[in-house]
Amino acid sequence: MHVRYRTYRLSRSLCLAFLLALGYNWATLRAQTTAAKADTDPASDVAKATDLSIPVSPALTLLGVNPSLVSRPSFTRDIKVDWSFTSYRVSPNLALEAQPIWLLFYDRPDLSRYRRAGAFLRTLSTLSISLATIQRGADAQRELAAAVKINLFRAKDPLMEVEQFRRSFADYYLKREELLKLQRRFEDSLKYHSDPVDKLNAQSEIDKLESELVKLKTQQKDRNLEIKAQYQRAFWNASCLDIAFGKRYNYNTETLDSLRLQDSGMGGWINGGVRAGRNGFISTQVQYVEQAILNANNRVTGIRSTLSAGLNFRYGSPRYNFFLEAVREIVLAGGPQTQTFIVAYGGDLRLGSSVLLGYGIRNVITDNLTLKNLIPVASVTCLMR
Q: What is the pLDDT of residues 243-282, one digit of tens each?
């Protein structure tokens, strides 16, 4: 097989300038969004904060360092950071993920633009870009992966069901409007009262109404959390379908002003899942990966291509769930035509609305049913909210 690979040299100053520009634009957009939140529909806020699940970055899936080899199909709408650990020492296994189309065009206090968009544009808004770097051992080659993922089907989209959230706010809107009318009445009376005692009494009533408004808003915030939790409990395992593609590289920093990248392969996969009762979720994934074969001098001598297919079953709730999966991996080229069977088990634990702890243990079994390897994997995923 004729092997082609490329080596890239990137200026660190250019990379830094690009990252700073991207960060500045995102920060500016966030500041504008925050400034406009005074007029935000509370139902839209609850819908935007309702993530049915938090997926692991696709770049880590390409590198094979997720707790489960069969990725859970899902999507989120926030910048996200992932840490993955495959050994007992702290290693630089870090991933960043963002949804540029959503952040640039639809991440607004008012969701009307997103809801008016066609099905194609709403699907395009789920496009996710991720970048990950890992080092499997102290002396191992550093690896970098870039991947894109898009959600093709989702049975439930909270942003399209704002009216369902809004119905829960009916009492809040009614009580708030009554208090505001009373407040405006006393404020108007201040203009016509000449007696200091009457003015003092009117101001006292205004202060009481302001306290009532603050109390009502606090109670509604607690109600918002309950509304979100109810929606997540009902639809955390809603059916979903994703497709993804990525490139992987080896890299090392030879000098202080450049980064050397060596093309080391690519991969693509499709994975989907369906609801299995109230507490179950069944997902499957088919993945094709090409990976460079390196010699002792880290020179590419060939390409190893593999095809894998797996089935995963999860049981639990939106806060915690456990999984059991089986994956069959076949070497197509670049090595002996072997097949490997992998059985993995583990789970997820969600802490609050923005942090997910994942863990898993992989049992690698050969064709003759011999246990070849045991690989523990853990990850921490955090939404940047």
A: 999 999 888 765 556 667 778 889 999 999 999 999 999 9
Helices (H) and strands (E) in the chain, counts: 9, 13
Nearest to 94 by CA among 85, 105, 106: 85
Distance CA 7, CA 250 (A): 9
Q: How far apart are CA 155 and CA 146, in angstroms?
A: 28
pTM reported for the whole predicted model: 0.76
Report the SS3 class of residue 164. Answer: helix
- Identify the burial level of 263 via C-beta atoms within 10 angstroms of its C-beta, where 0-12 means exposed, 13-18 middle and 19 or more buried: middle
| pLDDT tens digits, one per residue of 291-323 | 887 776 767 778 889 999 999 999 999 899 999
Stated as kind and residue range, the H or E segment containing 123 is: helix 119-124
Closest of 385, 353, 382 to residue 80, by C-alpha? 382
> What are the DSSP calls for 171-232, one per residue?
HHHHHHHHHHHHHHHHHHHHHH--SHHHHHHHHHHHHHHHHHHHHHHHHHHHHHHHHHHHHH
Tally the C-alpha atoms within 13 A of residue 88's C-alpha that lie toward its C-beta. Answer: 0
**Tokens 């990950």 label which residue?**
132
Bridge partners of residue 329, in order along the sequence:
308, 340
Angle between helices 170-192 and 196-235 (to 10 degrees): 170
CA distance linking residue 27 with residue 20, whole number of Å: 10
